[in-house]
Specification:
This is Glycoside hydrolase family 42 N-terminal domain-containing protein. This protein is of the alpha/beta class. It is built from 16 helices and 27 strands. β3 and β4 form a beta hairpin. α3 crosses α5, α7 packs parallel to α9 and α12 runs parallel beside α13. 49% of the residues are buried.
């Protein structure tokens, strides 16, 4: 009887004081496993979740992100600005309260902050979150969320420090003046096998992720990072790797450790193609890394960021070199597609991720949250606006803009760029309820513009609320100066009812509300309105909300 009561007490104690999950043991290379993704919580169960953020399956089956606000999980559409290294980290005594207050003033709700492995683990198994915690505290004071952009590698521009060649993670296996924990490269017959030479040559140093000394330490670091911020309401997610990949030169990798991994892969898979080896290795490593993070925090989301969107665009050389492609997001067990949209590659990247995810963006992981939409010097104004619209029309759960250095208040020459971002954030905020919950397609009302070359895309929430987005795809073919010299036009917007009702319609041009009206429509009836002074570079949002059905 005593034993019986001991068992009952132990069970009750476990419910009240659940044990902290433990990091699983590392698996041998290419061992088959079931990767751990972020949990998806049914909408009806969201109030039972104590985590500060979670993926929620809405009643319309869309997967959306929620964060804790006033004690309860609430909808959160991510509007982020990336800090950038050269805009904050390398400035002396950066005032992050000022930076984050400025972002908040522009309409952002999230700061993407670049963080290196060595920032939180400056020495082997010595974790130090003082710098990261200071960033989090500053963001919390400004009521801003933080998404970490976690670099696993160093860069040729002497990042994360002026002396990255001293980073301990590249010296876990040093032999004969070579660093065996990093990927070696060869060009014109010259082999570069240590970090100092690679930095001098001008290539970013990447780890051999499968080296046993690197592999288990990345998993340990990610688990530690997850646990440290698990209950933090400011940190909402992590981008696991920034432009990471297998390599970035066509003549790589010549590290003997990599050669051994290739031979092991051939034996285990009965395959022989080195390019396929790169792809399967990257996918497997990222599955293990994401699983390690989610063993520490099963709710906050992980994204990824491939190099300039070129792999998603299907560029053969980029795919061959890096082992990544549009499929990497799903095959690598990411929770979010953190693709990058820059100029011409961005449009090709959209086509690439559409080909892979068009039927699944909204209903299963990974969901779409582009991490970098270039602004200012990195994109024309039209490119920026179009990439945001391309994200919204696919029912993305947010996006990030690169970067703060292109929109900060004191750079008066970039004020038009800042104003463009502010206007876009404002337009989104005014229609955020539809954008957050909406699915592609028209609702009870369809909007059309009878001019060749005009694109009208719709999001709707259970039919009753619709957001139509109107833009001119051909505008991307013109320079900003050419567009500015074109005459404005009048367009006729036709609103056709699929369901009878009285509807409130609001029109926004580049974020500014320019028209409000209420119309009553019978089924299949149309009402037209004229919108004046429209330029080809403009973006129009038309929100249609049902007041009440007609008798």
């Amino acid at each position: 009887m005593i034993k019986y009561w001991i068992l009952i007490f132990a069970a009750l104690f476990a419910l009240v004081y659940p044990l902290q999950a433990q990091l699983s043991e590392p698996l041998p290379f290419m061992t088959t496993s079931s990767p751990v993704a972020a949990r998806i919580v049914d909408y009806e169960m969201k109030d039972t979740v104590t985590a500060p953020a979670a993926l929620i399956r809405l009643p319309n089956r869309k997967i959306a992100y929620m964060v804790r606000q006033n004690g309860r999980l609430a909808p959160f559409f991510l509007k982020a600005i990336e800090t950038g290294y050269w805009d904050t980290r390398y400035e002396k005594e950066t005032n992050y309260d000022s930076v984050f207050a400025d972002m908040k003033e522009m309409g952002a709700n999230t700061a993407y902050v670049m963080l290196h492995w060595e920032d939180i683990e400056p020495a082997d198994n010595r974790f130090d979150y003082r710098f990261a915690d200071e960033i989090v505290a500053a963001a919390q004071r400004q009521e801003l969320k933080i998404g970490w952009v976690l670099f696993l590698h160093a860069q040729k521009e002497r990042v994360p420090t002026l002396n990255p060649e001293t980073a301990w993670t590249f010296h876990l296996d040093d032999r004969d003046s070579s660093n065996y924990t990093m990927q070696w490269v060869k060009r014109d017959g010259v082999l570069y096998s240590n970090i100092r030479d690679i930095l001098t040559y001008g290539v970013r140093p990447l780890h051999v992720y499968g080296h046993k000394e690197v592999f288990y330490r990345i998993r340990r670091m990610l688990y530690n990072l997850a646990v440290h911020y698990k209950d933090d309401e400011t940190v909402i997610g992590v981008q696991l790797g920034n432009e990471e990949g297998f390599s970035f030169l066509d003549e790589s990798d010549f590290n003997p450790v990599t050669a051994e991994l290739f031979e092991e892969w051939k034996l285990k898979t009965n395959k022989t193609d080195y390019v396929q080896f790169k792809k399967e290795a990257i996918d497997w490593w990222w599955q293990q890394f994401t699983s390690a993070y989610h063993e520490g925090d099963p709710y906050k989301i992980l994204s990824f960021n491939l190099d300039a969107g070129q792999a998603e665009a299907g560029d053969p050389e980029r795919v061959r070199m890096t082992g990544t492609s549009a499929a990497t997001y799903a095959d690598g067990n990411l929770d979010a597609i953190g693709t990058m949209f820059y100029k011409n590659w961005g449009y090709k990247a959209i086509a690439g991720i559409d080909h892979r995810y068009n039927d699944s963006y909204n209903y299963k992981l990974p969901i779409l949250i582009p991490s970098e939409i270039g602004i200012g010097h990195f994109n024309t104004s039209v490119n920026f606006r179009h990439f945001v619209i391309h994200s919204l029309e696919r029912a993305a759960q947010g996006f990030g803009v690169y970067c703060y250095g292109e929109v900060r208040k004191e750079l008066m020459e970039l004020k038009p760029v800042r104003d463009d971002l502010v206007g876009m954030f404002e337009a989104i905020s005014r229609n955020e309820d539809i954008i957050y919950e909406g699915l592609p397609g028209p609702g009870f009302v369809r909007c059309e513009v009878g001019i060749p070359g005009v694109q009208v895309s719709h999001l709707n929430v259970d039919g009753r609320e619709t957001l139509a987005m109107v833009y001119f795809p051909e505008a991307k073919s013109f320079a900003d100066s050419e567009l500015a010299s074109m005459e404005t036009m009048k367009i006729k917007l036709d609103c056709t009812a699929r369901v009878s009702g009285t509807y409130k319609i609001q029109v926004y041009k580049n974020g500014e509300n320019i028209n409000d009206l209420s119309i009553s429509l019978q089924e299949a009836d149309s009402e037209s309105m004229e919108i004046k002074d429209v330029r080809k570079e403009d973006i129009l949002f038309i929100s249609v909300r049902e007041h009440f059905p007609l008798n």
